[in-house]
Amino acid sequence: MVLSDIGYLAILLAFVLAIFGAIVGGVGAWKQSRTLILTGQRSVYANAFLLTLASGLLFYALVTHDFSLSYVVETSSRDMSVGYLLTSFWGGQAGSLLLWAWMLTVFSAVAVFRSRKRYAELVPYVAVTLLCVQIFFTFMLGFLSNPFERLPVAATDGKGLNPLLMDPGMRIHPPTLLTGYQSFAIPFAFAVAALISGRLGTEWLGAIRRWMLLSWTIQSMGLLLGMWWAYHVLGWGGYWGWDPVENAALMPWLAATAFLHSTMVQERRGMLKVWNLSLVMLSFALSIFGTFVVRSGVLSSVHAFALSSIGPFFFVFLGLIVIVSAGLIYFRLPNLQTEGQFDSVVSRESGFLVNNLLIIGVTAATFWGSIFPLISEVFRGEKITVGPPFYQQVNGPLLLALLVLMGIGPLLAWRRSTLSTLYRNLRWPVLFGLVIGAVLFLLGVRNLSAALGYGAVAFVAGTIWREFYQGTRVRARNADESWPVALGGLISRNQRRYGGYFVHIAMLLIAIGVIGSSFFQQQTSATLRKGQSVTIGSYTLTNKGVYQASQPGVRILYSDLDVRRGGRDLGSLYPTKKIYRNWDNQPVTGVAVRSVLPSMDDVYVIISDISNSGVPTYRVFINPSVSFIWYGAIFLLFGVALAAWPRGSRRATREQVRVREVVTGEA
Amino acid sequence: MSQAAVNSSLPIASRRGRNFRFAGIALVIAAAVILLVALSMRQTKVYYMTVGELQAKGASAYGQSVRVAGTVQKGSIRHLGDGSIKFVAVDKTGRMLVTYNGVVPDIFGKPNVQVVVEGSERSNGVFEANTLLAKCPSKFQSSGNSRSASSP
User: Is the ipTM of this complex over 0.95?
Assistant: First the structure.
């Protein structure tokens, strides 16, 4: 087929053009030549087109079953539906790298195009930096991991996608995460551009912040979708296992979280400049590290990715990023002098500082735990690993401290807060948190950590409620508005602030889900003949029979389980075993899960085994409050949308300050 | 602008005192993180070895929490009916009987599947696993996950 060769040519051309554009654009920026600069930018646009073309052709090859391509043979087969054929695109290494690179070129083009006027001094360097990143990925695709590689003889049918990946969640979770990973390149490019050009005022901060918020949001969604997928598909009863691959996706997200907070200190006070730039660099380096860990097999992970030769290249690339970043920051140190100073330990600035230290603490501990097997092997000759208990013990207390700080921070005034104001603002929420913690303890939550966690959640919820309530009251009184109008006005005039609160509410919901499911999960295993029951907690499950069904290419065994709670019928659950053609000895377990109201428990069942005589053995989990996590995801999106929604923010500033003065007693 | 006035009117000594205070906060947090990591490391670290390496340790390994990598011997998997299983894990230099009660990953049933079990060896030489991970070296490209654990 000629078309697939065009795809490969497009990748090669993108590689050449990336080198060309980087050189020409670089010289242009140096010599201040408009023509050369524009040529560099056009390479960015052209590469977006070329990789879109290549990706389109790979989709086309998959959909038309072009089995002369080894990638198509490895990841798809004739009996797959179009939906799953699209999943095959990122079902293998070459395809997921192509997706990474494709998204990178598209994001690059959008970033350059949107900023070409507003950040005209930065854009030439942004374009060059992004092209350099593109050189690396198109090199990978062109010479080491080519999705358009041909087989000597075309196959008649493909091997099909691994059944584990045959799930709607796989259509959305990997591309989201890959898009998230690559998107950290954009703020990185702006940071490099600001450092090279020496334009280190505050104007570039806006560009970086917006792009970082986008990356953060995509990465948040990638992580949450991954958790959702793991929970609903993998059938081990949980959603997060502190595996190196999960940690790798979490770390850039953490660095970005830290940046989004500390950037406010720079915006407001001109402080923490070096720190902020370092966080931008760190988040990109960690996202490359994430991509690299996933692909290299350096860290042993249960995510069995194909091991490959591309690891060393990633390592070199990662090293380059770190060296260039550190070098640039060092080179510009004289221009990065702080403008302000910490005035008081009790201030918004110091709140953000502690927040950042805690987040980076979590990141460092997670990094250390992930790479420790490597370190111990090199230095002690024995491989020592740490598992979930390590991360729970270390990150648990740090995250709890972070949670409490989430309540205090927003109530601190810039420069200095008086302790009496703080006391006035915090006494009711603190009391509320203590009461909730104590009541839960009396009601039977006999786990100190859990009671502390719930108490902290209640405390933060109290502070957020106070912010909304007081802001609305002040507005309603000053402008003589009705309360709903005042609330609407308050939010729309302070979108960033209240968007941030909604994201904080999302974090509270996620915290409730995590605390509930970490401390109070119950599980049991039972072999049940037809009509037999098992009781776990307050739930009783009865096997009503095992049935068989078939679809093209797959045989499905399913069990009809009746679920009751204290006599109340909660309907049926249907856990399954699917046996795919080509994958006989790998039956796929289908999870059945039901969220029960009002207890907010998830009843989670899988068939762990079926005996030769057809008697199933079930494993049943009661997972309290997991669905709070998914509600949190919705709040998170809403909060980010609110914060980022373009609106005349300048007009709002004066009023914003007035409301804030009243609320925090800021002078 | 009034800020600048406030700043410059402050005596240098007190400014320096404040900076010390902030450095102090940073140090306390950093120390807390390092302490947490070091303590947890001591409590939760798990040696990672192959079946042969574990057996070479003999009785000194009994009761120690370890992670062991090996391959499931073909046809050795037995379901005991109560949700628990028994199988033989082998590698080039050793073999051991493993018991496990928990969620079994889907690809576990495949021939020659590589497993990583976490748990400890009892004095009768049987390995009691509380975590079972399975890996399939071939035909498995993307982010297929095969984790399972008996306890959260």
Answer: no
